[in-house]
Specification:
single chain; 184 residues; alpha+beta; 4 strands; flat
Amino acid sequence: MNLAELPTQMNLLQQQVASLQETLGQTRQALEESRRENTVLRQKLDALARRFFGKKSEQLNAAQLELLLSGLVERAVAEEKKEPPARPAPRTSSASSQRLRTPDHLEVVRQVIGPDLVLAQPEQWKKIGQEVTRRLDYQPGKFFWQETVRPKYVRADQRLLPPVLAPAPAQVADHSLAAPGRKF
């Protein structure tokens, strides 16, 4: 490097430093803007979570308020007449009326699954019972019951051993009525 080129190099370095400082300032500004936006989005998410997953027991709907107020009005009228207050008629539970009803007339497709030990030597085993699982399945154009039967066996000569049962097929969800469906 030449001494004559030194001022030119210094000017280039100063320009690069100024450019980098400007880029740093823009980056800091963008970061601060992202942080503000992140804070606002987190607040909105918290509000939505409270709305959908908050305590439902603390909410009072219009029917509950009406029932409460009707009891107060009846008591006030009864106190004026010196009669015992009338009790409101009990309401039926909406959960029981909304429970899914499944038709009984659907076709039943039965599948029997035996344990591998029993299938290898069936003469050495005695059937003592079975477990039946019934799930609702769908084929294009029709619904049907898919019934899985898993017989329980014990060895005929050694009854002290625990019973043998085939493993249950995979389910969509625990305690679900839906079958996983068939691939066509």
